[in-house]
Amino acid sequence: MTVETTRAPDTSRERPPVTSSSAAPEGAYSFDIPIRIADLSPAAHISNVAFLRYVDEARMAFFGAALRGSSRYVGGLLETIGEVAMAVVARNELEYRREVFTDDGPVTMRLWIPYIGGSSFVLAGEAVTAGHEAPAMVFESTTVFVERTTGKTWSIDDSAREVLSAWGGPRPHLRGRAGL
Question: What topology is assigned to 29-165 in CATH?
Fold first, then answer.
């Protein structure tokens, strides 16, 4: 068995250089999450799994949620798409920058949308805590719209594009993955 040790750099997703400062644009959606005992790892810091749950909680607050028995998003950004489509997460990429402990206080999730395609968009964000300039975690999440009746991708219409565009901002500063 051979292991590939070198590879030409992938320039298809060029990213800005990693910095220790926030990439959140002014006016990014902000959602506070209290640190719960169940969020802690055996090392007493927030676990990687908990950070993924934080992304999901903040995403649901930002987008809205389809209530039981309803096919509409309620209380969020995606109310505008009505009953036509649903948002499906296709990919999450999280990068952990520093540990967060219970005495760091609540975690503030900041969200924005740096890219809108034909039927998908990228939700970006970061987790910050009081007293720290740099984010503890940054992420990108690719979301695809799917028609509720057919299960096929739904082309983002002008109305939805306008709503999504209002939350624009830069791509987050993520490091490249090893070996890619």
Answer: Thiol Ester Dehydrase; Chain A (3.10.129)
